[in-house]
Specification:
heterodimer, A: about 120 residues, mainly alpha, 3-stranded antiparallel sheet, 4 helices, elongated, B: about 200 residues, alpha/beta, Rossmann fold, 7 helices, about 30% helix, globular, binds guanosine-5'-triphosphate, binds magnesium ion, DUF742 (chain A), DUF742 domain-containing protein (chain A), hydrolase (chain B)
């Protein structure tokens, strides 16, 4: 067996372009939670909502979904759902919240609660 | 149209109690058991998204990549586990090949850490994914997925050396088809994360 460092050059992370945000609003994360506002949707072609955006609104009728769940449900790439959701948010037809309130992201108890929860899942 | 069919969305919507959504990457090369592990522990039928690859992988110096924009897709599956206290844990099956780098970074954003699955019959297939995990700076644990014909003549020290793991990186064996074994592998990672972040003020 040989070690993995041999002959495997790493491209430094700073050469990568991933994570660049192009839009003015903060990029929706995969786990951002989308919720429909339940306002009446303006009908007719003049409303200018593409069919896919209406499907997304439809999916949110049943409750909140993360961006990635909406993408799976609608069979769309995550990048497409980000665009559709941003459009709905601009029109106040939906809202988004971060996956976890910023203050809790570094809550030291969070990991412990994840561990406790996982342990409780085990079948004996 | 009185009643829309709802069977396709059953169980997918978030419970109202969901508050803290966190994720762990289940990473590894093709066929190592990512989908199997996610399937074993997920409360929803594992879902997947089709991701456009060339969009993500096109690089400045790669004109072919730009020309072939949006031609390739890769399926990324994910599962979900609701835990007490409003925590929802997502598991993302993440392929580790170098050409998935941009996609990788997008999926890894905000993740707690990664469980790297290794097939001990072909550990070099995991070198790429270990490189990506380390560059992303994600803390990780390694789980050797137990295939029946896996060689048993390697010692832990040999495996650790071959994978070039730091002494503190957890190494466990698991059977991805078994829920308890998969949970144990995830727990090895989460305990590692806890050890890295000793609680302050106490
Ligand atoms: N014996 C044994 N077989 C396993 C185990 N985990 C997965 N397999 C089998 O290995 C095959 C590949 O597993 P998958 O879960 O599809 O692997 P994957 O990592 O999702 O593969 P890709 O999505 O193609 O990258 C399947 O036939 C599984 O049934 C394991 O722990 N033990
Ligand atoms: Mg798979």
């Amino acid at each position: 067996m040989t070690g993995r460092r041999a002959g495997r050059p790493l491209v430094p992370a700073y050469l990568s372009t991933g994570g660049v945000t192009r839009s003015s609003r903060p990029q929706l994360e995969r786990l951002s939670v989308l919720t429909g506002s339940r306002l009446p949707v303006p009908a007719g072609p003049s409303a200018g909502l593409p069919a896919a955006a209406l499907s997304l609104l439809d999916a949110l009728d049943g409750g909140s979904l993360t961006v990635v769940e909406a993408a799976a449900l609608l069979r769309l790439p995550v990048s497409a759902v980000r665009v559709l959701a941003a459009d709905l948010i601009d029109r106040d037809l939906a809202s988004a919240r971060a996956p976890i309130p910023p203050a809790r992201r570094f809550d030291p108890d969070l990991l412990k609660r994840v561990a406790d929860g996982l342990r409780a899942l085990k079948h004996h | 149209m009185a009643s829309a069919p709802s069977s396709t969305t059953d169980g997918i919507h978030l419970p109202d109690t969901a508050r803290d959504l966190v994720k762990i990457l289940v990473a590894g090369p093709f066929g190592v058991g990512k989908t199997t592990l996610i399937d074993s522990v997920s409360e929803i039928r594992p879902l997947h998204t089709e991701e456009l690859l060339s969009e993500a992988s096109a690089q400045v110096d790669d004109l072919d990549g730009v020309r072939e924009k949006s031609t390739t897709t890769v399926a990324i599956d994910f599962g979900r586990i609701s835990l007490p206290g409003g925590i929802v844990l997502y598991l993302f099956g993440t392929p580790g090949q170098e050409r998935f780098r941009s996609l990788w970074e997008d999926i890894a954003y905000g993740a707690l850490g990664a469980l790297v699955l290794v097939d001990s019959r072909r550990i070099d297939a995991s070198f790429d994914v270990l490189g990506l995990v380390e560059e992303t700076g994600l803390p990780y644990a390694v789980a050797f997925n137990a295939f029946p014909d896996a060689p048993d003549h390697h010692t832990d020290a040999q495996l650790r050396a071959a994978l070039d793991l730091e002494p503190g990186t957890p190494m466990v064996t698991c059977d991805a088809r078994d829920a308890n074994a998969s949970i144990d592998a995830l727990l090895a990672l989460v305990h590692h994360l806890i050890d890295r972040h000793p609680p302050e003020h106490r």
